[in-house]
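Researcher: We plan to redesign the surface later, but first we want a full-length starting point. Tokens attached.
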């Protein structure tokens, strides 16, 4: 979200969470001050998530507190291994979501990366996005759901999984049917242009999610 109007549209449509990108290279980048003004006008029950790329645990926590966020979503730096990531999550004081490229779970031992007890204890959910080490999400394209399905099934036994990347009201039902995630995350699929939401697309997306959710239980 980059403005109050879009955030309220999403909330009124039935979104459970709204996100704010603190990544300067993103077309959706927003300041702490702007986020704080928006957050103050949102219902208490809506999750307010800050999205970060390669930032320190201290920076995440500080920004989260200043902006009035309820959670942070982090894309680790390229090359972060299990040891460094487990150490990182120990120092984040906010409710934590960790984002990973969906391609990372398609290898034979992909989901084993997430099995650290400390990692699981501190992580509220894992977001699988369509980015890679060079572009951490925001590609507007889905990863291969069919190849990832078995790994996501195993991963979901130990941590909630959220699917992101290239989702729209037209394909989100297929994503949910294939991967059976805990949640889905959308950005470009409901935009009129980068950083500005299309109200009709937002409402259509939430409606599609709720319909498939009722059908699949």
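Model: Full-length starting sequence:
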């Amino acid at each position: 979200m980059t403005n109050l109007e879009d955030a309220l549209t999403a909330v009124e449509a039935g979104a459970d969470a709204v996100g704010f990108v603190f990544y300067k290279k993103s077309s959706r980048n927003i300041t702490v001050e702007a986020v704080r003004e928006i957050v103050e006008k949102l219902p208490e029950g809506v999750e307010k998530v800050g999205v970060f790329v390669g930032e320190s645990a201290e920076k995440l926590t500080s920004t989260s507190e200043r902006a009035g966020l309820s959670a942070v979503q982090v894309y680790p730096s390229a090359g972060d291994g299990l040891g460094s990531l487990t150490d990182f999550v120990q120092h984040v004081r906010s409710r934590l979501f960790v984002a990973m490229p969906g391609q990372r779970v398609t290898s034979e031992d992909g989901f084993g990366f997430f099995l650290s007890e400390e990692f699981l204890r501190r992580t509220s959910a894992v977001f699988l996005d369509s980015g890679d080490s060079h572009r951490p999400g925001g590609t507007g394209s889905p990863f291969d759901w069919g190849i990832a399905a078995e790994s996501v099934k195993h991963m979901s036994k130990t941590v909630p999984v959220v699917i992101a990347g290239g989702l729209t009201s037209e394909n989100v039902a297929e994503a949910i049917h294939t991967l059976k995630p805990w949640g889905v995350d959308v950005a470009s699929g409901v935009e009129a242009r980068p950083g500005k939401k299309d109200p009709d697309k937002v409402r259509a997306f939430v409606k599609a999610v709720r319909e498939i959710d009722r059908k699949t239980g």
